[in-house]
Amino acid sequence: MSPGAAPTPLAQARYHLGYQVAGRATLRVQRLRDERRLAARRPRPGDALLPTLASMARMKELMTGHYLRGRYVPGVRPVAWVTSGAPVEVLTALGFFLVYPENHAALCGARKQGAAYCVQAEDRGYSRDLCSYARTDIGAVLSGRTPVGSLPPPDLLVCCTNICQTVKWWYEVLADHFGCPLVTVDTPFLYGQAQPHQVDYVRRQIEEDLTPTAERASGRHLHPRRLREVVVQAHEASQLWLDILDRSQHRPAPMTAFDGFLLIGPIVNLRGHPETTRFYRHLLAELDARIAAGTGAVADERYRVLWDNLPVWYRLSGLSRQLAGLGVNVVASTYTYAWGELASMIDPDDPWGSVARTYLHPILNRSTGHKLDAMRGMVERFGLDGAILHSDRSCKPYSLGQIDQRDRLVGDLGVPTLLLEADHNDQRVWAEAQNTGRIEAFVEMMAAGR
Amino acid sequence: MAATLAVPSRSGAIERARERGLAVVAALPYHYPRALLRAHRCHTVEVWAPAVAVDSGARHFQAYTCGLITRGTAFLLDGGLDSVDAVLVPHGCDALQGMGSVLTDFVADRPPVLTFYPPRGRRDVDRAYLVAELRALADRLADVTGHRPDADDWQEALALEEAADAALADLYAHRTELALTDREFYTLVRAREYLLAEDMVEATTVVPRGPARQRGVGLVLSGILAEPLELFDRIDEAGAHVAADDLSTGTRRLLPPAATAAPADPYERLADRLMSGPPDPTRTDPVTARAAHLIGLLQRSGAAGVLAYDPTFCEPELFYLPLLREHLAAAGYPLLHVEVEPGTPLPTQTVTRIEAFVETLS
Questions:
Q1: ipTM value of the model?
Q2: pTM for the structure as a whole
Q3: Looking at the complex, does the CB of residue B101 fall below 8 Å from at least one CB of chain A?
Q4: Which domains does chain B have, with CATH numbers?
C-alpha cells in the first residue's frame, strides 16, 4: 500500500472474510483434528522416535495462519520484508505485517522445493555459490511462485547485518526488484566485547533511520507505550523459548533439536505478538508433562549430541529418524538458542537501548571463539556425548571457524565431533551415501569412547 | 610480453620502512585508513592471495572459502607473521570476518591482530560511527606501537598519504599519456599496496611519457583482484586493452582529495575520505549506483564492454552481476563474467572466453 494510504474497503472486506472469519475458523478446526490425531498416537514397538509433540498442531495453526494472513493483507496493512535478525519490535508496534524471506526459504527447503527455486534464480544469472536461502527467495520472487500461495509485496525492506553480510547484498537485489525503500541496520561484528560506539551506532540507526522510514511507510506514528508492549511480549516469548530449549537438559530429553528447528517458527516470525507468548507457554507445559512422565523424544536415548549451524531443511525428518535409530538425540543446537539466549538483554524499561544491545549480540555476530565457548557450555550443561557441526557451504559466517572449533572440542574436551558437509536449502549438495557413512562412523566413535 | 618498468620490491619496501623506524603491519583487503597507521609509525604491506601452497590455510578454512582468505592465511602462517609487528583485518565480507576471527581466536604465538569494521552505508550515522571506529583502532594501534601521534605526526602522515593518493589519481588521469603496457601500469598501481607513501610518489615521477602501449578495443575491468598479471598480456594478445577499471586493487580505493574545507580533526578528515570512494560491492552500495558508475566509466573511457573478473566464492561480486548485466545491456554494453582461483595460473579456458568476448566487441 502507498505510504499512509487508508485501507480500501474492498481489501478490508476480503481480509475480514478470507482470513479473519473463514481462514482462522478453518485453521482452528484443522488444529483440533491434528491435536486429536496426535493425542491418539501411541508409540509402536521399534519406533525410534516418540510421537510428535501435540504443540506442533498449534505451531502449524500459527504459522499457516501467518502465511494465510499474508495473502489478504495487501491494501490492509503495510508490509515489511525483514531479515531474521532485524529489530522488528519497532515494525510490529507500527502495525506492519512481516515477511521473513529466510523463513519462507526454509519452508520451501523443508518441502524439498529449495533446489527448484534455486534453479529459477540460477537461470537468471545468480551463481550457485550464493546462499541457497537467497537463491530460493530470489527464485520465488522472479518466478512469482511459492508453496504458500502468495507473498504480499513489501512496502519496506529491512535488513540487519547481524546474521551475515549476505543479507545486505540479497536485499539490494530485492530493493532493485520491488523499488521500495530499504533500511539497513548495520551491526559491527563483535570480535570481542561490544564497545559503546558500536551499541550507539545500532541504536542511532534504529532511532534515526529505521523508525522514521517505517513511520513514513506505514503512515503511522510510533507510540512509546505500544513499543513497550511489544518489547514486553518479545522478552517473555524469548525467555520462554530459552526455558523450552533448556528443558532438554533433562534425561531423557523431552524434545529433539529437530523439533526445535520447526518450533522456532513463531519466535522468528511472530516475535512480539501475544499469541506467540501463549503458544510457548503451552509448549513448555507439554514438555514439563513429558519430563514428569519420564518420556523422552527418542525411545532409546544413548547419546546426546549438539547440532551447530542451520538445519539441513530437506533432510530434517530423514536425519532425525536416522540419528534416533542409532540411539542419538540431538538435544541442543547453537541455531535454536540464537532466539533465546539474548532474552535477558531485552529490557522493556529501556526499549531502544536494550533492542540495540540485543540485536548486536546474536551468536552469528560474535567471534568464532565465542561460539566455541557457547558450545563448550552446552557440552557441560546438556551432558553431551558428541557434536555435529554442519559445514554449510551456503552460510560462510556460521561455518568458517568450524575446523578450529572441531579441533578444540575433540582436543580439549575429548568430545567426538563430526564436520558434516552439506547445504541448508539446496538438496543437490547432499551426498547421501557419504553422509550416512560418516554419521555411522561418528556414532561408533562415541560408542568407542565409553 | 615482459614488464619493463622498474618498481621497488616488496621486501625492499619493508626494509626501508624498518630503516625509518616504522613498525610493519600486514593488511588484508582493503578499505582501511593508511594515514592513521602511518601517524602511529606503522607501515602497511597488503596481503592479497599470494601464490603460496594453500595447505596451512586449508587447515583452518573449508574448501568453499575464497582463495584470498585461504592463501592469505597460509602466507601468514608459513612465515608471514614472523616478519610483521601486527596484522590488520578490515571487515569487507563474511570471509574476511571469519579470517579475522580465526586468527584472533585460534592462532597462538602471533603478533597482535587488529580488526576494523567500516560501515555499510554512507549516512550521517555511518560517518559518526566510522569516526568512533577510527578512534578505537587508534587506541589499539597505540597499544601495539607504544606511540600516540601528536599534531605534527598527523599532519605529516596525512600529507604523505594524500600525496600518494593524488599521485596515483594523476597516473589514472593521464593513462593515455604514459608509455606503459597495461601490465606495467597495474604493476605500478599495485605498488601502492606495499610502498611507503613517499616512495610511491617517487615511483610515479619516473614513469616514461608517450603514447600508451595499448591497442585494440577498450574494456572496463571490474572485480576484486586482477591476477595473475599475465591476464593483461592475454588481454593485449586478444586485441584489447583496459580503458578503465572498477577494481578493488584499482580505482575502488582511489579516494578523492580532501576537501579544501576538510575538518581539522584527523579522524573526521579520514572518515570523510573513506566515505567518499566510488560505488563498491564491499560497501554494499545499491545496484543502480554501481550500474551508473560502470556506465559512466564506459562512456568516459570509450570502452566497449565490461570484463568482470572475480575470485571464486566472492559473494559481494556475485550478487550484483545479474542485475548489473541487465542495466548495462539496457545501456548497450555487454558484460563477460569469469571466475578464477586467486594465486593460481590463468586457466586456458578463461583466456579463450576473454578472446571470444573481445572478438564480439571488435
A1: 0.95
A2: 0.95
A3: yes
A4: 10-150 (3.40.50.11890)
